[in-house]
Each structure stands twice: as structure tokens, then as C-alpha cells.
Amino acid sequence: MDLGISGCWALVCGSSKGLGRGCAQALAAEGVNLVLNARGAEALESTVRALREAHPDIEVRGAPGDISDSSVRERALAVAPRIDILVTNAGGPPPGDFRDWTRDDWLQALDANMLTPIELIKACVDAMAERGFGRVVNITSGAVKAPIDILGLSNGARSGLTGFVAGLARQPRLAGRNVTINNLLPGAFETERLHKTLAAAAIKSGRSPDEIAVERQAGIPAGRFGSPEEFGAFCALLCSRHAGYYTGQNLLLDGGAYPGVN
């Protein structure tokens, strides 16, 4: 299927590795010009080079830095002639007990996982509406559907973004002008972050990371972890010209791990 987005410009955050890179790769394969952002300049430049080599017919530009910094956001947005597709993405805050978190911990989590995506959305959607096309995809977490007790910072910040998007996406001046805003909620995917989590759990339990991985996969009906490539494919589909009637939704990608009906 031709997704109809060749020639568009996309800003993809957190795209030097993991799920963000998977999204960038899928969009590049559809002929989308890219602005890639990530905090690690070296890893980002490596991804930029790889995508340029794989897709010489598109523009791939890097915008390194912490996207929660307003000056980095301004630079990233200015790198492209326009933003037709916005993919927001930020690493989750650390786990822990809410009794140990300070006000600064909460503000940091809110800034990275709620306020920064909102600022990026604010910078893009009105121009998208004027042009009659726009797609915003926020990479959040499966914990929005099934909160995890030790991830309270993430649960709170990402749920706040979810509530905000639910209202904004339904504004007629956006939805009625072919601008959609949706959230992708990943479960367990084969990423560097997952392997760090498995390693930490292994140390805590005295078992090997492989044993922890097998145990976790046994709790997923699909029997495996997801791949960044298949996550990126779903992202590209949400960004397509064919997805204009799908907005304000939370799409959970977890191999069937969540047992609820909605």
C-alpha cells in the first residue's frame, strides 16, 4: 500500500535508537524527509548517515540535543521547511517509590513526558491545519493502560499527556482539517532500555538476564518481545494519508499482554 506521504517532512524525537529509530526507518522507506533528534550526538549522527545511505532520495537532517530544552526545540523545528508529521518520544523517568520522590523529580518527569510533547504539538498543529494535512504520534507507554506501581512518575506524566491529547485531537479546527493526534503505547520491545531493565532485574533476583527474559515472554500471548521495526510500521500507518479518520486514540502494541477490553 502506498501511504501517500512521500515528500512530507517529519520530526522524529528520540530517533537515534530503539522505537524512535524504528519509526524513522519506516517513514524513510515511505519517502518522508526526516529531521532526527536525540540527546546523544554521536549515535544520532550514525543513524543520520545510515538512513541517508539507505534512502538517497530523501533529506535526512540531524538536530542533536535534549528536546525538553526550548532552544533545542526551536533548532529542531527550524531545520525543516515545514513539519507535516511529528513523532514525540522521550525516555521514561526512573522507577521507584513515590515516598522518595521530590517535587523536582515530578517536575522533571512532567517536563519530559508531558509538557515537551505539548510544546511541540503547539508549535506544529496550526500550520498543519492551514495546509490541510498533519499527523502527530506520541510514543507513550503501555503503562498508561495498565499502570505499574514502581513507575509512578511515568504513569502520572504520560497519563496527563493522554488526557490532554484526548481533548485537543477532537477540536474541529484540527480534526476537521485533516490533522490527527494519536498515541502509540508500547509494551515490551527489543530495545536497549528493555535489556537494561532485564539486567537490573537479574541482578536483583540472582538469576540471568536470559531467564528473566524467558519469564517475561511467557506472560505475553505472542510469546516474544516486539521489534522496533514493527513498531515503526504502525507509526507510519498512523501517519499515512489513509488515517485521517483515526484521531484521539491510544493504540496499544503489546503482543496481547494487556488483558482488558479497552
Automatic annotation (TrEMBL):
SUPFAM superfamilies: NAD(P)-binding Rossmann-fold domains (SSF51735). It comes from the Bacteria. Signal peptide: none annotated. Pfam families: adh_short_C2 (PF13561). Gene3D superfamilies: NAD(P)-binding Rossmann-like Domain. InterPro entries: NAD(P)-bd_dom_sf, SDR, SDR_fam. CDD domains: BKR_like_SDR_like. Belongs to the short-chain dehydrogenases/reductases (SDR) family. This is Oxidoreductase. It comes from Pseudomonas matsuisoli.
